[in-house]
Automatic annotation (TrEMBL):
One of its GO terms (biological process) is DNA-templated transcription. It comes from Roseovarius albus. It holds the Pfam family HTH_1. This is Glycine cleavage system transcriptional activator. SUPFAM superfamilies: Periplasmic binding protein-like II (SSF53850), Winged helix' DNA-binding domain (SSF46785). Transmembrane segments: none annotated. The gene is gcvA_21.
Amino acid sequence: MNRLPPLNAMNAFARVAQKGSYAEAAKVLNVTPAAVSQQVRRLEQFLETKLLQKYGRGVLLTDDGQILSRAILDGLAHIEQGVAKLTRRAHSKTVSVTTSPSFATHWLLPRISKFQVVHPEISIQLDLTAEARSMERPDFDLAIRYCKFEDLPPGTEPVKTVTLNVLCPGRLLPPKPWTPDVLSHLPWLQELGVSEISGWFRRRGLEHCLPDRVSEMPGNLIIEALKRGDAVAYTVCDWVSEELESGALHELWPEREKGAYYLLTNSTSEDEAISIFLQWLNHEADL
Protein backbone atom coordinates (compact mmCIF):
# COMPACT_ATOMS: atom_id res chain seq x y z
CA MET A 1 0.00 0.00 0.00
CA ASN A 2 1.64 3.21 -1.20
CA ARG A 3 -0.81 5.81 0.11
CA LEU A 4 -2.17 6.79 3.50
CA PRO A 5 -5.82 6.45 4.50
CA PRO A 6 -7.89 9.68 4.58
CA LEU A 7 -6.70 11.88 7.45
CA ASN A 8 -10.25 12.70 8.61
CA ALA A 9 -11.00 8.99 8.88
CA MET A 10 -7.83 8.33 10.88
CA ASN A 11 -8.59 11.23 13.22
CA ALA A 12 -12.16 10.03 13.78
CA PHE A 13 -10.99 6.49 14.52
CA ALA A 14 -8.31 7.76 16.94
CA ARG A 15 -10.90 9.74 18.91
CA VAL A 16 -13.20 6.70 19.12
CA ALA A 17 -10.25 4.64 20.35
CA GLN A 18 -9.54 7.28 23.00
CA LYS A 19 -13.13 7.75 24.18
CA GLY A 20 -14.49 4.23 23.74
CA SER A 21 -17.67 5.30 21.95
CA TYR A 22 -18.89 7.06 18.82
CA ALA A 23 -20.98 9.49 20.86
CA GLU A 24 -18.06 10.71 22.99
CA ALA A 25 -15.78 10.96 19.96
CA ALA A 26 -18.46 12.99 18.17
CA LYS A 27 -18.47 15.52 21.03
CA VAL A 28 -14.70 16.00 20.70
CA LEU A 29 -14.90 16.39 16.92
CA ASN A 30 -18.08 18.51 17.04
CA VAL A 31 -19.91 16.26 14.56
CA THR A 32 -22.70 13.67 14.82
CA PRO A 33 -22.05 10.08 15.96
CA ALA A 34 -23.29 8.92 12.55
CA ALA A 35 -20.60 11.01 10.85
CA VAL A 36 -17.92 9.47 13.08
CA SER A 37 -19.22 5.96 12.37
CA GLN A 38 -19.15 6.67 8.65
CA GLN A 39 -15.52 7.81 8.80
CA VAL A 40 -14.51 4.67 10.72
CA ARG A 41 -16.26 2.43 8.16
CA ARG A 42 -14.44 4.33 5.43
CA LEU A 43 -11.14 3.61 7.15
CA GLU A 44 -11.98 -0.09 7.61
CA GLN A 45 -12.87 -0.37 3.92
CA PHE A 46 -9.61 1.31 2.95
CA LEU A 47 -7.56 -1.06 5.13
CA GLU A 48 -9.78 -4.09 4.44
CA THR A 49 -9.88 -5.04 8.12
CA LYS A 50 -12.16 -4.67 11.13
CA LEU A 51 -10.90 -2.07 13.64
CA LEU A 52 -13.76 -1.87 16.17
CA GLN A 53 -16.39 -4.17 17.59
CA LYS A 54 -19.50 -3.29 19.59
CA TYR A 55 -19.40 -3.77 23.36
CA GLY A 56 -22.51 -2.72 25.26
CA ARG A 57 -23.08 0.95 24.50
CA GLY A 58 -19.49 1.45 23.47
CA VAL A 59 -16.87 -0.20 21.30
CA LEU A 60 -13.69 -2.22 21.76
CA LEU A 61 -10.60 -2.25 19.59
CA THR A 62 -9.77 -5.36 17.62
CA ASP A 63 -6.14 -6.50 17.50
CA ASP A 64 -5.65 -4.56 14.25
CA GLY A 65 -7.45 -1.61 15.80
CA GLN A 66 -5.04 -1.56 18.74
CA ILE A 67 -2.02 -1.54 16.42
CA LEU A 68 -3.43 1.29 14.31
CA SER A 69 -4.68 3.38 17.23
CA ARG A 70 -1.25 3.37 18.90
CA ALA A 71 0.41 4.45 15.66
CA ILE A 72 -2.10 7.24 14.96
CA LEU A 73 -2.15 8.56 18.54
CA ASP A 74 1.66 8.59 18.67
CA GLY A 75 1.70 10.48 15.39
CA LEU A 76 -0.87 13.01 16.57
CA ALA A 77 1.09 13.57 19.79
CA HIS A 78 4.23 14.19 17.73
CA ILE A 79 2.38 16.70 15.54
CA GLU A 80 0.97 18.47 18.61
CA GLN A 81 4.48 18.78 20.09
CA GLY A 82 5.76 20.28 16.85
CA VAL A 83 2.89 22.76 16.62
CA ALA A 84 3.38 23.75 20.27
CA LYS A 85 7.07 24.34 19.64
CA LEU A 86 6.39 26.51 16.59
CA THR A 87 3.74 28.44 18.52
CA ARG A 88 6.19 29.14 21.35
CA ARG A 89 8.76 30.36 18.86
CA ALA A 90 6.26 32.71 17.29
CA HIS A 91 6.14 34.56 20.60
CA SER A 92 9.67 34.11 21.93
CA LYS A 93 13.17 33.14 20.84
CA THR A 94 14.09 30.00 22.75
CA VAL A 95 16.87 27.48 22.18
CA SER A 96 16.39 24.14 23.94
CA VAL A 97 19.56 22.21 24.82
CA THR A 98 19.84 18.75 26.35
CA THR A 99 23.10 17.81 28.06
CA SER A 100 24.47 16.15 31.18
CA PRO A 101 24.22 17.84 34.60
CA SER A 102 28.00 17.60 34.96
CA PHE A 103 28.82 19.37 31.69
CA ALA A 104 26.18 22.02 32.31
CA THR A 105 27.43 22.76 35.82
CA HIS A 106 31.15 22.87 35.07
CA TRP A 107 31.35 24.25 31.52
CA LEU A 108 28.11 25.55 30.03
CA LEU A 109 26.43 27.42 32.89
CA PRO A 110 29.52 29.50 33.82
CA ARG A 111 29.51 30.80 30.22
CA ILE A 112 25.78 31.27 29.60
CA SER A 113 25.74 34.69 31.29
CA LYS A 114 28.15 36.01 28.64
CA PHE A 115 25.79 34.86 25.89
CA GLN A 116 22.78 36.45 27.59
CA VAL A 117 24.58 39.79 27.93
CA VAL A 118 25.14 39.88 24.16
CA HIS A 119 21.78 38.30 23.22
CA PRO A 120 19.20 39.16 25.92
CA GLU A 121 16.41 38.46 23.42
CA ILE A 122 17.24 34.71 23.29
CA SER A 123 16.31 32.34 26.13
CA ILE A 124 18.23 29.11 26.72
CA GLN A 125 16.17 26.17 27.97
CA LEU A 126 18.25 23.36 29.49
CA ASP A 127 17.27 19.70 29.85
CA LEU A 128 19.82 18.15 32.22
CA THR A 129 20.11 14.38 31.96
CA ALA A 130 22.71 11.71 31.27
CA GLU A 131 20.13 10.04 29.01
CA ALA A 132 20.80 10.36 25.28
CA ARG A 133 17.56 12.05 24.23
CA SER A 134 16.32 11.25 20.74
CA MET A 135 17.03 14.16 18.42
CA GLU A 136 14.12 13.07 16.24
CA ARG A 137 11.83 14.57 18.88
CA PRO A 138 10.88 18.23 18.34
CA ASP A 139 11.50 19.03 22.02
CA PHE A 140 15.22 19.74 21.64
CA ASP A 141 17.19 21.89 19.22
CA LEU A 142 20.68 20.85 20.34
CA ALA A 143 22.33 18.08 22.32
CA ILE A 144 25.80 18.12 23.87
CA ARG A 145 26.86 14.52 24.39
CA TYR A 146 29.86 12.76 25.92
CA CYS A 147 31.90 9.93 24.40
CA LYS A 148 35.38 8.45 24.53
CA PHE A 149 37.63 10.59 22.35
CA GLU A 150 38.29 7.71 19.97
CA ASP A 151 34.53 7.24 19.53
CA LEU A 152 33.86 10.76 18.22
CA PRO A 153 31.58 10.58 15.15
CA PRO A 154 33.62 11.08 11.94
CA GLY A 155 34.08 14.73 11.03
CA THR A 156 32.88 15.95 14.44
CA GLU A 157 34.79 18.68 16.26
CA PRO A 158 34.50 18.42 20.05
CA VAL A 159 33.02 21.28 22.04
CA LYS A 160 35.30 20.29 24.91
CA THR A 161 37.99 17.62 25.29
CA VAL A 162 38.55 16.28 28.80
CA THR A 163 40.64 13.73 30.68
CA LEU A 164 39.24 11.19 33.14
CA ASN A 165 40.64 9.02 35.90
CA VAL A 166 39.70 7.26 39.12
CA LEU A 167 39.71 10.02 41.76
CA CYS A 168 39.82 9.54 45.51
CA PRO A 169 39.47 12.00 48.42
CA GLY A 170 42.43 12.17 50.77
CA ARG A 171 40.54 10.77 53.75
CA LEU A 172 39.67 7.57 51.83
CA LEU A 173 43.11 7.11 50.29
CA PRO A 174 44.11 3.44 50.72
CA PRO A 175 47.69 2.32 51.38
CA LYS A 176 49.79 1.58 48.30
CA PRO A 177 49.93 -0.38 46.08
CA TRP A 178 46.58 0.71 44.59
CA THR A 179 45.72 -2.59 42.95
CA PRO A 180 42.37 -3.29 41.24
CA ASP A 181 41.39 -5.46 44.20
CA VAL A 182 42.01 -2.56 46.59
CA LEU A 183 39.98 -0.21 44.38
CA SER A 184 37.05 -2.63 44.22
CA HIS A 185 36.54 -2.47 48.00
CA LEU A 186 36.23 1.33 48.12
CA PRO A 187 32.82 3.08 48.02
CA TRP A 188 32.16 4.32 44.46
CA LEU A 189 29.92 6.95 42.90
CA GLN A 190 28.53 6.81 39.36
CA GLU A 191 26.40 9.16 37.27
CA LEU A 192 22.78 8.13 36.85
CA GLY A 193 22.04 6.36 33.59
CA VAL A 194 25.62 5.39 32.67
CA SER A 195 27.94 2.42 33.25
CA GLU A 196 31.29 4.19 33.46
CA ILE A 197 32.65 2.14 36.36
CA SER A 198 32.07 -1.30 34.89
CA GLY A 199 33.36 0.01 31.55
CA TRP A 200 36.58 1.26 33.15
CA PHE A 201 37.25 -2.12 34.81
CA ARG A 202 36.35 -4.11 31.68
CA ARG A 203 38.65 -2.05 29.44
CA ARG A 204 41.49 -3.29 31.65
CA GLY A 205 40.31 -6.89 31.70
CA LEU A 206 39.33 -6.58 35.37
CA GLU A 207 35.72 -7.81 35.27
CA HIS A 208 36.47 -9.95 38.32
CA CYS A 209 37.26 -6.81 40.36
CA LEU A 210 34.04 -4.84 39.93
CA PRO A 211 33.34 -2.65 43.01
CA ASP A 212 31.22 -3.97 45.87
CA ARG A 213 29.47 -0.65 46.60
CA VAL A 214 28.25 1.72 43.89
CA SER A 215 25.88 4.65 44.49
CA GLU A 216 24.31 6.58 41.59
CA MET A 217 23.50 10.29 41.40
CA PRO A 218 23.56 13.20 38.90
CA GLY A 219 27.06 13.98 37.62
CA ASN A 220 27.28 17.45 39.18
CA LEU A 221 26.53 15.97 42.63
CA ILE A 222 29.33 13.42 42.19
CA ILE A 223 31.88 16.23 42.03
CA GLU A 224 30.47 17.76 45.22
CA ALA A 225 30.54 14.36 46.94
CA LEU A 226 34.17 13.87 45.88
CA LYS A 227 35.12 17.23 47.35
CA ARG A 228 33.39 16.31 50.62
CA GLY A 229 35.33 13.05 50.74
CA ASP A 230 32.32 10.73 50.45
CA ALA A 231 33.55 8.18 47.89
CA VAL A 232 35.70 7.34 44.87
CA ALA A 233 34.60 8.11 41.29
CA TYR A 234 35.76 7.70 37.72
CA THR A 235 35.14 11.20 36.46
CA VAL A 236 36.47 14.25 34.61
CA CYS A 237 39.75 15.56 36.04
CA ASP A 238 39.20 18.98 34.43
CA TRP A 239 36.28 19.71 36.76
CA VAL A 240 38.47 19.29 39.87
CA SER A 241 41.87 20.57 38.73
CA GLU A 242 42.31 22.78 41.81
CA GLU A 243 41.57 19.90 44.20
CA LEU A 244 44.03 17.64 42.36
CA GLU A 245 46.72 20.31 42.46
CA SER A 246 46.20 20.97 46.18
CA GLY A 247 46.23 17.26 47.07
CA ALA A 248 42.63 17.20 48.31
CA LEU A 249 41.94 14.60 45.60
CA HIS A 250 44.25 11.89 44.27
CA GLU A 251 44.40 9.92 41.02
CA LEU A 252 44.44 6.19 41.74
CA TRP A 253 45.49 4.99 38.29
CA PRO A 254 48.69 5.91 36.41
CA GLU A 255 47.04 6.73 33.06
CA ARG A 256 44.20 9.10 32.32
CA GLU A 257 41.69 8.45 29.54
CA LYS A 258 40.61 11.07 27.02
CA GLY A 259 36.98 12.00 26.43
CA ALA A 260 35.03 14.56 24.44
CA TYR A 261 31.77 16.48 24.54
CA TYR A 262 30.35 16.99 21.07
CA LEU A 263 27.36 18.68 19.49
CA LEU A 264 24.29 17.22 17.79
CA THR A 265 21.62 19.34 16.14
CA ASN A 266 18.01 18.56 15.40
CA SER A 267 17.77 18.25 11.62
CA THR A 268 14.31 19.86 11.73
CA SER A 269 15.50 22.94 13.64
CA GLU A 270 16.02 25.95 11.38
CA ASP A 271 15.91 29.12 13.41
CA GLU A 272 17.95 32.31 13.65
CA ALA A 273 18.23 32.00 17.45
CA ILE A 274 19.68 28.49 17.10
CA SER A 275 22.22 29.68 14.51
CA ILE A 276 23.31 32.52 16.81
CA PHE A 277 23.71 30.17 19.78
CA LEU A 278 25.69 27.67 17.67
CA GLN A 279 28.07 30.39 16.52
CA TRP A 280 28.60 31.48 20.12
CA LEU A 281 29.08 27.88 21.29
CA ASN A 282 31.70 27.20 18.61
CA HIS A 283 33.49 30.43 19.55
CA GLU A 284 33.60 29.39 23.22
CA ALA A 285 34.87 25.94 22.23
CA ASP A 286 37.80 27.54 20.38
CA LEU A 287 38.90 29.65 23.37
